Amino acid sequence: TDFNFDKLHHTVLRSTVSKFLQDELTPLADEIDRTNDFPQMRSFWKKLGDMGLLGITVPESDGGTGLGIFEHCIVMEEMSRSSGAIALSYGAHSNLCVNQITRHGNDEQKAKYLPPLISGDKVGALAMSESGSGSDVVSMKLKAEKRGDYYVLNGSKFWITNGPDADTLVVYAKTDIAAEARGITAFLIEKGMEGFSAAQKLDKFGMRGSNTCELVFEDCKVPVENVLGPLNKGVYVLMSGLDLERLGGAAGPVGLMQAVLDTAFPYLHQRKQFGQSIGEFQLMQGKMADMYTKLSACRSYMYGVARACDKGHFNNRDCAGVILYAAETATQVALDGIQCGNGYINDYPTGRFLRDAKLYEIGAGTSEIRRWLYRKIF
Hints:
GO terms for molecular function: 3-methylbutanoyl-CoA dehydrogenase activity; flavin adenine dinucleotide binding. The protein is globular, with a radius of gyration of 21 Å. The mean pLDDT is about 90. A hairpin with a 2-residue loop joins strand 2 and strand 3. It contains twelve helices and ten strands. The strands form three sheets. It has a four-stranded mixed beta sheet. Strands 2-3-7-6 form a four-stranded antiparallel beta sheet, covered by helices on one side. Helices cover about 50% and strands about 15% of the residues. With about 375 residues, it is of the alpha+beta class. The protein folds into three domains: about 120 residues, Butyryl-Coa Dehydrogenase, subunit A, domain 1 (Orthogonal Bundle), CATH 1.10.540.10; about 110 residues, Beta Barrel (Butyryl-CoA Dehydrogenase, subunit A, domain 2); about 140 residues, Butyryl-CoA Dehydrogenase, subunit A, domain 3 (Up-down Bundle).
């Protein structure tokens, strides 16, 4: 089924991105996963910038491509189909860092930070979570103390995607501890700032090659002009983009599910037992039907929500719902892909799809938190 609502525009985008990724990323995906490293990241980022994919939702007036979240989902989906890990890094750059600067930066901040992020000359990240505050973001401990024309940051962030690589980061810190949620402010942090460092990258179960680490702030001096959005309104800055983060993130598991089908279905027709391909047995045919319909349901849900968002109809219920459903479904589809045959050995990429898919039930809001959001909706 063709789920593209504007067939020509979206089909051209998908086919162009897909061909580029099949040439530039898919052949590297297994090695990236095995080594937990992507040494070609900088050159790959430049190519993404040349294609206009790093500022895809940024207005043309700010140097971006001027497209919508629907198009971002297409790119994220296709990239996840090639490499879930590198797609995760792409989302952290384009959907988190770039999007927040676009939405909340003043003219000077956008002029300074957006061009190198959009071109791929620099890598972006967002830092919210800490070792003791993930879902409970308000309990963060990173403190920013005003001293003249600077804020001095002390503390740390944890589980930060692109942390080891990022040149520009949107970082949340407490500027008024007593005010709790009303005392958090967003800052623009640059690699090389005195007192700011990235610790050793983490060795993860999945999403290997999408570098993740702890960020350390030790008397890090940040100019007052690097405050992003209103002072003490960091929760507003964060939450105002959270629906787009969740929706854009849902494209990750959708792309991973497609990758599972790309791998498992041909194998079902090649593998023979009892004189016929195992795909001819009814139980395996049923599994194929279930995998396909689950993927199609998630893809349709995602595109429907994306189209609504691009028309200005934001709905936190469905932005949370689509990633909740897609993430858990992707894990199950990947498990089914392993069951289809030979997925338990690393000569096939199916195990990688499972390990990558599981992240989406944990990162950017756990499945439990996403369900909890519904407590006041119905």
